[in-house]
Structures are given as structure tokens and as C-alpha cells.
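Example record for the data management plan.
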Amino acid sequence: MSDFLSFLSEATSSGYNDEHAFTHLWNHVVSSPEARQHFAHDNSDTIRLEIERAKDDITHPLNAHNAPKEGFTNGKRDHEAYYKELHHVADAVHAIANHPSFQEAVKKKMKARAVGGDRGVLTDVWKKNGSKPNTAAATSKSDVIIGDHTSGDHHSISLKKGKAQLMSAEPEEMLATYDHATDEHMKTNRKFTQEHKDHVMGAIRAVAEHMHATKNKSKAKQIGMLKEAQAVIDAVHEAHPGLLKHIHHEAATGHGKFGYGQKGTARHIVTIKENGSHVHDTITNHEPIIAGKVRLALPKYEGRPANAKVEYQTIKVN
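Corresponding structural encoding:
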């Protein structure tokens, strides 16, 4: 039971948003001829030195007084958290700038914009499974856009750090994710038939019912219900081990949710990791996404159903 209970914890906020830290640092470094020289170095050490210099220079663009207020938790300008996050994303900024896919972005001085709170237009698969527009189900998979999304000359990025998640879905979105993933699995595995899909979706619908039934129950009852439903999910993936990679891919990209390459999708996953950030291209998928199994967690708020989650694991650094 202790292992199951360990699944139910949530991460806490740092005081300054990593998406805003990334965009603020990227926009400074890419636009300044002097700062752009940082990209030529083997690592992000010179970027970190500039961050430290900015602390004592109120005129420096990276000084906390000059940071956009939107990135701070509850609007409180937390300088310590701000500088900590800048240092945390420095390697990610450096890694992206040196990735082959982003050379034109650096050359054209493309600006970045935090879009983690944006929403996309849901596809019919999501709508038929009960997901509603203008709800959390329509939340963008990308956290940052570099360039102009409306022109097509852009890069959509999902930022991941620590115990990040590829997916945190209420029942309707979980159903849609499995609906899309089973279709994708049929395309790549001839042994996985429509009959198999129907059986899987029947099992997942039963899980969704359990998730809804946890609303307003005692914690003890919720845990018991989720443990029973978890066994159903585990059995599905034990019977069809190739299905999980399609869950991972959809949870990372949102191509099934919004349509391939549409607003809200993510092309790259950037692992924010000091001394080793990594850029993963979800289209070429040359290095498969490493993530955990689908697991159920207690409702986030009273009166809400349980969530289906997938934990993201740091991709190995080249």
C-alpha cells in the first residue's frame, strides 16, 4: 500500500515560473550581440556568470527588477527564486541554441513566449470522449514558443524538470488519449486488431467510471477504488506492451488532441537539468521518450474526479 500511496503526491511551486525564466533568459541572450557569444562556448558557464553580474547591476536586463512580473508566483517579486530559476534554465537555453533544429532561430533572433496557460482547439476524438473546450483538457502541451506560431516559422517546446509529468488527465481526457493511442498502435502492429482496441477501450471506460466515482468520497475509499482501477490499467498494458509508447507520445506532443502541428502541440521536449540539459525531437523520435506507466492519483481538489498521470523521466544526455 505504501508504494501506491507514494503515487499520490504533487510537486510544489518554486516562486518563479521556469517557462518565464527560460523565455526571459533566451530573449536576452539571443538579441544581444555580446550575449550571443555565450552560445559559442562548450557549456553555459558564461551565461551563469552574466546572471551573477546582473544581480548587482540594476540596469542589466537580467536584473530581477527588470524581469516581467508575470513569472512570479502570486505576483510577489521573489528575487532569490528568480535568480535560482535563471541558473536552472541556463543549460537548457544553451542546449537549444546549439541544437541543429534551432540554428535559424538563433540566426533570426527569434523571440520566445511562454504559452503554458494557452489552450488549443480540440479534435473530434477528444470531443466525442467528453473533453470540453476552454477547460484544462484543452491546455497546451507546449510551454514555450520560439518564433511566430501564426507564420509556421516557429518551434514549440515542452519544458520538463524534476518529477515532471507528461500527462495529468481527468477521465474524459484519459479516454481520448487511449482512443487515439490504440488507433496509432493498430497502424504499427498488425496483431493489434479492432477487437483488441474495443476490449482495451471497454476496460478504460470502466477505469474512468471508477475515477468519477471517487468524487466526494473519503480518502480511504478513494484509495481503495483507485487501487482496483489501477489493476485494470496494469492488466491492459501487460497484455499490450507496445501500447504505452503511443500513450507517451500523445501525452508529450498533443498531436491527437489538437491535430498534427497545430496550436498547443509540442515538437521538442527540453529536459531542464543542470550540467546536461537535453533537447528531444518528438517527430524524428530518434531517442524514445522515457516515461513511467499510467497511474491513478487522488483528485486534485474536492469535488473533482481522480487523475490519470504519466511521470516523465529525464532522457539520457548525449
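Summary line stored alongside the record: Residues 1-12 have pLDDT under 50 and may be disordered.
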